[in-house]
Write a structure and sequence with these properties.
The complex is a heterodimer of chains A (113) and B (113).
Chain A: E1 4-7, E2 10-14, E3 19-25, E4 33-38, E5 45-50, E6 56-59, E7 62-67, E8 72-77, E9 86-92, E10 102-103, E11 107-112
Parallel strand pairs in A: 2-11
Antiparallel strand pairs in A: 1-3, 3-8, 4-5, 4-9, 6-7, 7-8, 9-10, 9-11
Chain B: E1 4-7, E2 10-13, E3 19-25, E4 31-38, E5 42-51, E6 54-57, E7 65-66, E8 76-78, E9 87-94, E10 103-104, E11 108-112
Parallel strand pairs in B: 2-11
Antiparallel strand pairs in B: 1-3, 3-8, 4-5, 4-9, 5-6, 7-8, 9-10, 9-11
The chains are: A mainly beta (113), B mainly beta (113).
Chain lengths: 113, 113
Amino acid sequence: QQQVKQSPQSLIVQKGGISIINCAYENTAFDYFPWYQQFPGKGPALLIAIRPDVSEKKEGRFTISFNKSAKQFSLHIMDSQPGDSATYFCAASIATSGSRLTFGEGTQLTVNP
Amino acid sequence: EAQVTQNPRYLITVTGKKLTVTCSQNMNHEYMSWYRQDPGLGLRQIYYSMNVEVTDKGDVPEGYKVSRKEKRNFPLILESPSPNQTSLYFCASRSGQGATEAFFGQGTRLTVV
């Protein structure tokens, strides 16, 4: 079963625009929500992560927004650049139990110049 | 340099011919996993290991075997590959419990004909 659902599957944005990728989860025990970025021919790499004790975390142009009651979290990329073109995966886990990461389906982002 | 190394990067094989994909990490991580990546399905965990001699099934373990005889190595074995195992495979390691970053290898693209 897919415990983390991600949308959209693909996204095309113009340079300078805002990219928004959404994820929804089912397991209320999840308490660690990372986002991974994957460039073609490479393995995924951690981009940014959030714990549910905060509603937002920002690192440069990348922001995670977290809505615990709705069981949703999203990645916002401000001032999107062609170099941001990649596949993005959200994930979730139960940090205190050391459980495995459950990944969403992935979003292929294309930023046009 | 901290890294996860997978070999081979590309492999074409025939149905039923046993193969092994190797994975090695140099970060002394306890936790290692294998994933397969398929379009629209994201990253699905095949097997994981919490330490030497401790392994467990992930979401899609059928047709795969693993072993963890040394902390740094976690090979993936396909005893009798079938075409539905054609996929992109990733090995990953984490330092263990908690909200820890997963480090991925560069991937192995396997084609079974």
